[in-house]
Amino acid sequence: MASTLEERIQLVEERIKNACERSGRSRNEIQIIAVTKYVSLDTTKAVFEKGLRHLGENRWQVAQAKWEAISGSIVQETDEQPIWHFIGSLQTNKVKDVIGKFTYMHSLDRLSLAEAIDKRASQLGIVVPCFIQVNVSGEDSKQGLEPEQLFPFVEQLKRFTSIKPIGLMTMAPYEAEPEQTRTVFRALRELRDELQQRPAHPHTITHLSMGMSNDFDVAIEEGATWIRLGTILVGKEEE
User: Fold this and answer.
1) φ and ψ of 139, to 5 deg
2) Could you tell me which CATH number the domain at 5-234 has?
3) pLDDT tens digits along 196-214
């Protein structure tokens, strides 16, 4: 792996470009979320200073010090502040800590969580863009709705006026050969396409949050619009 942050960014950009060329897509269609959960505050600041505006964390306990140091207020999408993405499973009792600080939620997977997000967002007077997490691979270790639960769930979301579903999210199994993840990413794209063909919600569900350090090239080829990159991009620091 490339040794410096600059080199890692350059390598990732080259791979994104190549994946886009192979699949006939534009680089502008892809957004990088730099997953900073395994790195320090200083490294997180450096990542943002290199132009990576979207930062991903999966636990408020870990993210809190970074958020307070870099942002410290309800996040607005400006060039001066990072845009935070909550990418982990969220317990309903932690919603009050997260909503209003993280702009995007990537793990909406149950009505009880939707209710808690909607209530907190309503109190703050904001609307929260959310990705619905789908367990396409069917692994017991993965969170998310089963594919057949997706359409009824989206129908139910219509009653939560402070939630804006903008896309679907999934995690593929770790495979030594990334090509083996293709069917998972393709299945999520097909679910997204079906949602667009027979809409179950007033908001158009457009985006696909899929692809991580091991398999983002394949995810892009299959339609990813947001990729979540940790080790390959920002590195990993030992505790």
Assistant:
1) -70, 140
2) 3.20.20.10
3) 998 888 899 999 999 999 9
